Amino acid sequence: SGPGGQETTAKKDTTGGGSGGGEGTGGSGTGAGVGAAAGTGVVVSKVVPPRDTTSCGTCTNASITPGGTFAGTFKAGDTVIVGNFDMVLVSVANSSPSALTGKGTIRVPWMKASISVDFSGLKINTSRQVTSGTVRSTKDPDATNIPTMLADALETTVSKGGSAALDALVKQKDKILKMGMEITQPLTTPIGINNVAGFTLVVADIVFTKDNAFLAATVSVPITQYNDTLAFGVNSLPFCPGGIGRRGTLELLSDFELRGLVPNPNTLSVVVKARGPQRDGTYISWGCNGFDTLSLDVDVMLPRGWVVPRPDNDPNKKVAARFAGKTTDWKNWILKGGLTPCTFPNTNGMGMEITDLILDISDKHNAAEMVFPAGYQGDKTAAFTGLFAGNVTLFLPDGWRTFDDPSKAPSVQAKNLLISRSGLCAEFRVANVIQYPKADLAKLTGSLDTISVAIVNSSVTQAYMIGKLNLPVATATQGTALAYKALFNVAQKRFDFTVKPDQDINASLFAGAKLSLLQTSLISISLSSTDRKFDLSLNGSINWDGGTIQVPNTNRKIELELGAKFENLGLSYDHNKKPNPQATAGTFTFKKGTWSFASPQKKIAGFPISLSGVAFEQIAPKGAELCAAQLKFTININLDSNKLSGSGSFRIQGAIEK
Question: Whole-angstrom Cα distance, residue 291 to residue 326?
Answer without folding.
Answer: 13
